[in-house]
Amino acid sequence: MFQTEVEFTLPKGYLDDEGSLHRDGVMRLATAADEILPLKDPRVQQNPAYLTIIVLARVITRLGSVQSINTKVVEGLFASDLSHLQGLYERLNGDSTDAFAPGEEADPREPVGLNGFDTAGGVVR
Known about the structure:
- By secondary structure, the chain is of the alpha+beta class.
- The protein has five helices and three strands.
- A three-stranded antiparallel sheet has the order 1-2-3.
- Strand 1 and strand 2 form a beta hairpin.
- The protein starts with a strand and ends in a 32-residue tail after the last helix.
């Protein structure tokens, strides 16, 4: 079965303005538009590292009970959670045959690299 979404648990979690911690979420497969359209964003043109923030905001479909996943939410993640999501993004969207089994959850202890993202945060082509 072709899996288009994967559940994840953040190592630390997103702390919202009310002090609630959100750790469990869902990320979907990225589309071409998810990687191309943010390149036109002025924030990315001024700071290429911001591409990571916009792309993740587009592909994370659920994070706890947060109503809307947007760049403000992704900006508010702890660095270890951002790194975790970058690794998950690459595993889900990369050319690797290392796919998720149906219903498999991303393991927060799994080593996460920046595969698919350059050191400035941009998606590697």
